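Batch manifest line 357
LIGAND: nicotinamide-adenine-dinucleotide
JOB: complex structure
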Amino acid sequence: MEAFEYTALPARVIFGFGTLPRVAGELAALDCKRAFVLSDPHHAASGAARLMDALGKLAVHLSTDAVMHTPSDVTERVMAKLVASNADCLVSLGGGSTIGLGKALALRTDLPQIVLPTTYAGSEATPILGETRDGQKSTIRSMNVLPEVIIYDVELTYGLPPALSLVSGINAIAHAVEALYAREANPVISNLAEQGIAALGRALPRIVSNPANRDARSDALFGAWACGSCLGAVGMSLHHKLCHVLGGTFGLPHAETHTVILPHAAAYNTDAAPAALRRVADALGANEAAGALFDLAARHGASTSLRQIGMSESDLDKATDAALQSAYWNPRPVERGPIRALLDDAYHGRRPSRAGA
Ligand code: NAD
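JOB STATUS: finished
ARTIFACT:
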């Protein structure tokens, strides 16, 4: 065993089928009595309505204002409602966008959060918040934004369409891939990363062929928690930087962008972090990681090119510049030529090569 350092994050996790009604007991355990509930328009009539029922008089307001990339003007609008409601906690039901809004409010108020995730993005398990202001996305790390309680109710994910399940699951896998070659990599998180990749790698094809498969849905949600925990525990590298730029500056959809970029980022780092990428391949039951990640997307119908998800070819230079603007850890040095080649491959949806190697 090599030397390592590891700081565990506090986490209370309830995982199962039909766990949503546990929210009232969790509120009481936090000594809270006035919940400000957050969701998105999609869940207003379904999950959020059930949540409001389960909370009864404990819910003081329902906001369905959440949108992707946590724009600060939306947060400020909802913040005014939160102050007026005199709430003593936040309960967020939805994907990363809803959970992001809850975190942005927690940062400003220090209120405790209970979250009920409905996608595989993993934000619920991290002390990270990305916010967008004037087209610029910035990320902070603060224990104030780490949710106190996560309630995973597998039934909340049944409605996640197969195509969205696939890209959301690959978004989760990306956290675990980068955790395996992180500078702060440690045996606890690397184990969790392998488990998360393996659980999602097994579950996603089954969900695409039968979205009602209970076992596959619970494997995928477990994988999402494992991968989200990796994101929360260690620093991320080139892949997350590129997705952050492409989402925040060019408005590309979050999970779809991760799905396109991941095989290329894995290929870029293969020679510099061979043991980590070997573990990814093993977890996927494949010979080689980058190709297996590309096939997981391509064989099950996900977009594999930036062009397909709304990127303009004329923006590739600007995206390259943005990816090189600040320094961050990556196993292989981040250099202009190879990064431009990587983005070109991703734009055209080519099978990953070790760009510029
Ligand atoms: P999302 O929350 O925007 O959800 C995507 C779409 O799926 C939305 O239209 C939503 O209404 C719908 N949806 C969600 N759950 C559903 C369900 N169960 N059934 C049917 N439809 C459902 O997207 P996301 O990918 O979950 O999250 C993306 C956002 O989260 C981005 O802003 C990203 O930056 C952020 N994020 C943050 C972290 C972090 O640690 N801070 C981690 C991952 C993602």
